[in-house]
């Protein structure tokens, strides 16, 4: 006999779902296992909107198609006060595009305007991804949101790789890979710890997110270190051409292995250990200080999310092309080193949207979400994006490898160790956040003074990089 289960009032307030469910006899409902035959009848979410089939109630907009006024109002409001401030930079977007065609000789202004315009464009990518993620199951939505946040980085890497002449921009790509990891690990995570610690003495996060993420980072650090260590150990012992060829083969093989590791990590999150991640994220939603406000906000429709992503990615791609075209001029004429350009300048603008989202989550006491964003983006860069750019370079017959400067790789390994130590007790405070930020500032200062190495003197191969005298070898 079928039994009818009515929802309790309190869960409705927590989840924003009003629904009826039918449970078949003999099900494990109420026990640790999930019911095998749990049929949700049509329900309504917290705002009284009928929940569309396949859409999570938290992401139900109650509308369909595209409504221009609602679209612009919701997109401009964005997801947080920080994101709203970033949207005031949208006037730079048309200005940056126009100046590239109207005054192509103003290299510095083209670089500055496109650099600033990248922030609101990337912010829209992040917001549209977040709105789309609300409509999906939590773990799948978080993975998709993190991946979409990394799209900006992938576009920049691909444009850099495509535009490189005589391999001149490959050192910038290498530095940008490590710089992106450092920006997430030290700067973003540091601001999350610091912002959350200002409102609470301590914040806690679950072991499944911190330990798994830290393990993946150690594996990635090891994989990224090997080609550099191999080159440094054997330089001078065998011919340079043979050594560089061997390092290139090692890098390509390592990239395939790192890509496999990333796919296993995604499978671990989405399939075999999905329940652990879902439980951690649900705990965070219960602790969210602004959950009632988030639930009450108007949402984008599914179609509007796609439109926003298309607009944002188009702008990001244009800015990336115009930005990259000016990098060699900035390095030549203004003395900015490859290390500072790659480690600091490029990652700061490409990661702006992800950082704003994660810091807002930490401020609202959602440390599992914040940590998942920081660690997820870092792991994606270390395992997926770095591997992708090497494999694409392989297809384009360009010698893109993982032979990093020793300075860069040492900084990366030390950052992984420092952050791993802070994550060990599953607690955070503003002191740990401040220390992470200060370490990042030290790295930024050192990279500003780090010169462009003469080819052949360090881990820079002959014919690669922008020489210190401003010429391309």
What can you tell me about this protein's structure?
The chain is mostly helical and 473 residues long. The chain has 18 helices and 7 strands. It has helices spanning 9-15, 68-77, 81-87, 92-102, 107-134, 138-163, 170-199, 207-234, 240-272, 274-287, 291-296, 302-325, 327-334, 338-350, 352-363, 367-395, 406-423, 430-449; strands at 3-5, 17-18, 21-23, 38-40, 44-45, 203-204, 427-428. A 3-stranded antiparallel β-sheet has the order 1-3-4, with no helix packed on it. Strands 2-5 form a two-stranded antiparallel sheet. Strands 6-7 form a two-stranded antiparallel sheet. Helix 5 (107-134) packs antiparallel against helix 12. Residues 1-42 and 466-473 have low confidence and may be disordered.
Protein traits:
disordered C terminus; three-stranded antiparallel sheet; disordered N terminus; globular; 473 residues; 18 helices; two-stranded antiparallel sheet; mainly alpha
Write the layout of secondary structure elements.
Blueprint: E1 3-5, H1 9-15, E2 17-18, E3 21-23, E4 38-40, E5 44-45, H2 68-77, H3 81-87, H4 92-102, H5 107-134, H6 138-163, H7 170-199, E6 203-204, H8 207-234, H9 240-272, H10 274-287, H11 291-296, H12 302-325, H13 327-334, H14 338-350, H15 352-363, H16 367-395, H17 406-423, E7 427-428, H18 430-449
Antiparallel strand pairs: 1-3, 2-5, 3-4, 6-7
Q: Biggest sheet: strands, sense, closure? A: 3 strands, antiparallel
Structural class: mainly alpha
Number of helices: 18
Helix content: 55-70%
| Overall morphology | globular
Arithmetic mean of pLDDT: 79
Oligomer: single chain
Radius of gyration: 24 Å
How far the N terminus sits from the C terminus, by CA atoms, comes to: 80 Å
Write out the strand line-up for the largest beta sheet, numbering strands in chain order.
1-3-4
Report the sheet-strand fraction: under 5%
Poorly predicted residue ranges: 1-42, 466-473
Following the backbone from N to C, one meets helices and strands in this order, namely EHEEEEHHHHHHEHHHHHHHHHHEH
Count the E strands.
7
């Amino acid at each position: 006999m079928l039994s009818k289960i009515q929802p309790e009032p309190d869960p409705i307030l927590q989840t924003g779902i009003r629904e009826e469910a039918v449970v078949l006899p003999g099900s494990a409902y109420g026990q640790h296992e999930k019911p095998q035959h749990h049929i949700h009848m049509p329900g309504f979410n917290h705002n009284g909107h009928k929940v569309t089939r396949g859409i999570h109630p938290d992401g139900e907009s109650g509308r369909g198609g595209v409504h221009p006024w609602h679209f612009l109002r919701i997109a401009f409001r964005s997801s947080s006060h920080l994101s709203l401030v970033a949207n005031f930079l949208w006037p730079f977007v048309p200005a940056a595009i126009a100046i590239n065609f109207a005054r192509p000789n103003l290299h510095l202004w083209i670089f500055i305007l496109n650099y600033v315009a990248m922030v609101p464009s990337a912010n829209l990518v992040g917001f549209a991804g977040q709105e789309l993620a609300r409509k999906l199951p939590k773990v799948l939505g978080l993975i998709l949101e993190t991946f979409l946040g990394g799209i900006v980085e992938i576009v920049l890497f691909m444009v850099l790789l495509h535009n490189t002449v005589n391999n001149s921009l490959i050192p910038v790509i290498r530095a940008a890979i490590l710089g992106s990891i450092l920006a997430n690990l030290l700067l973003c995570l540091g601001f999350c710890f610091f912002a959350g610690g200002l409102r609470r003495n301590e914040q806690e996060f679950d072991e499944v997110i911190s330990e798994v993420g830290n393990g993946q980072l150690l594996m990635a650090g090891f994989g990224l270190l090997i080609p550099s260590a191999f080159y440094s150990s054997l330089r001078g012992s065998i011919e340079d051409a043979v050594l560089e060829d061997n390092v290139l083969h090692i890098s390509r093989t390592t990239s395939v292995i790192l890509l496999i590791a990333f796919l296993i990590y995604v499978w671990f999150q989405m399939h075999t250990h999905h329940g652990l991640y879902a439980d951690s994220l649900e705990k965070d939603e219960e602790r969210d200080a602004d959950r009632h406000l988030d639930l009450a906000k108007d949402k984008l429709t599914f179609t509007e999310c796609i439109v926003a992503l298309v607009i944002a990615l188009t702008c990001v791609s244009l800015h990336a092309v115009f930005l990259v075209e000016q990098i060699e001029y900035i390095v030549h004429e203004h003395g900015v080193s490859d290390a500072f350009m790659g480690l600091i300048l490029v990652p700061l603008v490409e990661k702006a949207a992800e950082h704003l989202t994660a810091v807002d989550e930490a401020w609202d006491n959602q440390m599992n979400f914040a940590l998942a964003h920081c660690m997820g983006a870092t792991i994606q860069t270390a395992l997926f994006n770095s591997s992708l750019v090497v494999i694409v370079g392989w297809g384009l017959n360009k010698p893109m490898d993982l032979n990093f400067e020793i300075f860069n790789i040492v900084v990366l390994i030390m950052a992984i160790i420092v952050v791993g130590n802070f994550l060990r007790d599953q607690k955070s405070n503003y002191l740990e956040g401040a220390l992470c930020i200060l370490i990042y500032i030290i790295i930024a200062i050192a990279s500003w003074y780090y010169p462009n190495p003469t080819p052949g003197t360090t881990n820079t191969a002959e014919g690669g990089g922008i020489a210190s005298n401003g010429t391309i070898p």
